[in-house]
Amino acid sequence: MRAAVVRSFGGPEAVEVVERERPEPGAGQVRIKVAASALNPVDAGVRAGAFGGAGQEIGLGWDVAGTVDAVGGGGSPWAVGDEVVALDHGVIKPLGAHAAYVVVPVGAVAKAPAGVDAVHAATLPLNALTADQALDLLDPQPGASLLVTGAAGAVGGYAVQLAARRGLKVTGLARAADEAFVRGLGAAGFVAGEAEPGAYDLVLDAAVLGGPALARARDGGAYVGVIPHAEPASERGVSTTAVEVAADGARLAELVRLVEEGALELRVAGEYPLADVATAHARLAEGGLRGRLVLVP
Questions:
Q1: pTM higher than 0.90 for the full model?
Q2: Domains located in the chain, CATH noted
Q3: How confident is the model at residue 74 (pLDDT cuts 50, 70, 90)?
Q4: Largest CB tally within 10 Å, which of 47, 113, 137, 193?
């Protein structure tokens, strides 16, 4: 089967498409025939060596939408032919979801959203789980004020929608041109550029602004980032942490339900065949995307 890997770190040209043996599922695992897989900033970070792994061949890709192709031993809630979405968790791994087939634990899988094509469904797992689990870390009370930076981006957009459903007073920070879009996601307020210091109970820093985002939290408030161990140090009694996304099929199923209800919007910025993965990485590096680029094997 074909798979996207990196064997030496660098720019988009470092990504290679190679032939590898089709993986076999073990106990408690399923193999998914990949129909689509989103390209995320974490993949660019792996490609560039931000997470280590020098001297290894590293597979890329976390998001998967496809069809269960084989089931490992030990019993499984999934059967061959089930259409599913899943999170293939792991930064340094020999094979990822940017491949023709991927093996994942049964607990990482959820039924694919009905009425949604695989390309759009593939944009859900990593970014929506990250946003949802980041909100859990903030432990918000209904009515609390929340600033979401990067509110027009993939993680930020999901965070705005999910936070509004939790009864939070959400303000989105994004470019001025994105105001109507961010408000349409459920943000009650919007700021472009500088937000008022100390004005918010909570800050979810999807844009990875760090200190400038932390400054927007009130004294004694809370800040959560989206890059593990890269959050700024606490100040003014503001708690700081960062989400480290975990595969969670049950939570993913809840997010799928919200998609089916029309409560979560899935956004595709572009579609590329797996053979053109280096071109997709180059487009990701250019920035300015609203939604995710998706690879199709």
A1: yes
A2: 2-124+266-296 (3.90.180.10), 127-242 (3.40.50.720)
A3: confident
A4: 47
